[in-house]
Protein 1
Amino acid sequence: MSDMEKYNKPWDSNLITREYFDSLLVEMRHIDSVIPSTKLELFGETFDTPIMMAALSHLDNVCENGMVEMAKGAHAANAVNWAGMGDEVEIAAITATGARTINIIKPYADNDYIFRRIEHAERCGVMALGMDVDHSFQGNGKYDVVLGEKMKPKSLIELKEFVKSTKLPFIIKGVLSEQDAYKALEAGAKGIVVSHHHGIMNYTVPPLYILPKIAKVINHQIPIFVDCGIVSGMDVFKALALGADAVSAGRVIMEPLRKSGSEGVKDQIIKMTEELAGVMARTCFQDLNHIEPSVICHRNGW
Ligand SMILES: Cc1cc2nc3c(=O)[nH]c(=O)nc-3n(C[C@H](O)[C@H](O)[C@H](O)COP(=O)(O)O)c2cc1C
């Protein structure tokens, strides 16, 4: 990030997040190190990488059948796929690729519609589902409207009902405070995504800044996922070290998707996974479960 960018947009949560990633430094630990495993165990299934697709949507302007191509790429890399807003036909097409998919349903104003979408996602065989609770308001304090669809913030009671309505793990996406982490646990969520939804509000804390505090609240009871601004295996490593169980990558896969479709997505996941393995080898962590925060140092000023 250039000084000019920082100067011109000091409020930009994406720039603040990038700056925070780059403020984190990593010790090296070579003695006794071995070739590391990047295998992820999640909800009883095993994947080759903790790098998952982000819950994206509407990728047809990136490449034809963008969401399906992304799913195929994730499947080919044996990575978890996520899917955001999309109609039932699209979710069915995504899951038909065989990609193990987590479907994030929007906080629609109409709860009956949410229950129907939960049932539909279950029928499609998703591995988990959830809601991006951070997409309920517009910046002017009114309820959000996304592509003509009305949204409404959800109460703890409503979230408990969504969780109760499904046998699948229900994940709350858009947790960026200890307060919401406590509430997610109380709601019965089976996972959270620490995220500011690529800068939905200005001046948000970077996910990795708040992550250690959230991890303390969650205390290994449910998996913690992180997204926003992850572009390299080193970024992934820092997130895992500070308390994430896995991460999602969104915008970084869009250019490879545009250029080479599912192959591009697969290659990008593999490239970042190899970078992660490289850092794990040089920090003496044999697998994901051993990575811990003492390896991270903070530059002055943070
Ligand atoms: C084109 C696009 C569409 C997205 N659609 C959704 C969505 O439907 N549901 C959702 O929860 N998040 C959605 N997101 C947010 C991502 O899941 C993710 O939180 C965000 O992009 C941060 O990750 P990144 O910096 O790796 O892109 C979308 C992001 C992008 C770029």
Protein 2
Amino acid sequence: MNEFLVRRLWLPLHERLRGRETLRHYSDLKASEVWDAPRLEALRLRKLCRLLAHCQTQVPYYRALFAQAGIKDAAASGAQALREFPPLERDTIRSGGDALLAESGHPPRLRANTGGSSGSPLVFQTDLVKEARHNAHKLRARSWFGVLPGQRQVDFWGSPIELSKQSRLRVFKDRYFLNQVLLSAFNLTAQRLDGYVTFLAKYRPRLVYGYPTVIYRVAQHVLERSAGLGRYRPRLVACTSEMLLEHQRETIRQVFDCPVANEYGSRDGGLIAHECPAGQLHIAAEHVWLEVDQPDADGVGDLLVTNLDGYGMPFVRYRLGDRGRLADAPCRCGLPLPVLAELQGRANDMLVGADGRQIHSLAPIYVLREIAQLQQFRLHQRADRSVSVELVLSRPLLAGARQDMVRRLQAVFGELPIELIERDTIPPEKSGKYRWVISDAV
Ligand SMILES: [Zn+2]
């Protein structure tokens, strides 16, 4: 489909039909990205005060916290009121239930889950405004590289649930009306990788988007096979959901011969930061308020996010599970958005099936997170390809459920020995990297 038509007609129509004003938010963000820093800061403060007032009047959990801290007018206290809050932990969200939801029921909420790659899955509620602004921030960051809304895009993505739900009609609509093609990130056989490389050279997406482990694997495949990408070059490869490691970035850049940028965000926290062409991670400042909890001598600590656009189930000082450091100086690219100087996120390893195929670590994680009482896990694949999964559960698994889980994991891995071990706790690795999937298999 003609990209101009998608941008001007189909994409706005599609978003409007789904109740999202994504393109309007995108225009607003293109305007505020050329403001000076004080004007942007004033907007952020206004948004923060408005959110806190909403939390005080509408959300029982926060109302109780304000009362405990003796704050009568949260909006007037602004950023100072924020510092009175304890960080919001995933366990609090799990146990907090309806106390975290806005009593008015506005905006209408949607159920979502996240945390697949963090080792600590979470079911939560989001809303259409939060989702639309999240998407608008993604679109804005891509525009810094010359990728505009509606231009051809390939996503390497994969939740088995999302993929199975995709009817043929939706695949057709996404491809021919929205210029978006989804390619499964799971089960990367050599044959499938061949097909992907051929498709990229023919479809010529301007944006390639997805997990760095998978795009790196595609890039390696191009290097290994004589059939390359021809004269095709994207404008941008954007990586998300996992740490983008330096060797991955180099290989991807070499093969695709275009800028490679890191996107940092999650459905619960929002779009948090995105790299600019100068290589700095800019915070999506109109959308999130980012803090570092108890920074060490180098300024590094746990990242806490307050999503300024999420009113259905507000996330205030939410502990993301990643560590980082805020920069003191602005970026030389001229954007007024503050910079996240360092990000220590999650590193995931690729897993290997019984028949030798590569399996993205999210494939078993999507199976595991369907255990209702799952609080935390760590999956380890040994050199002999056997798999052990440590689980922290709020109540033990019944024998039938345990067998069922092993059977479903074997559907992912093939006939490999799989062991489930229940634990009271799994200590996080404070070395910086949160590795909940560890693979020694090749
Ligand atoms: Zn910059």
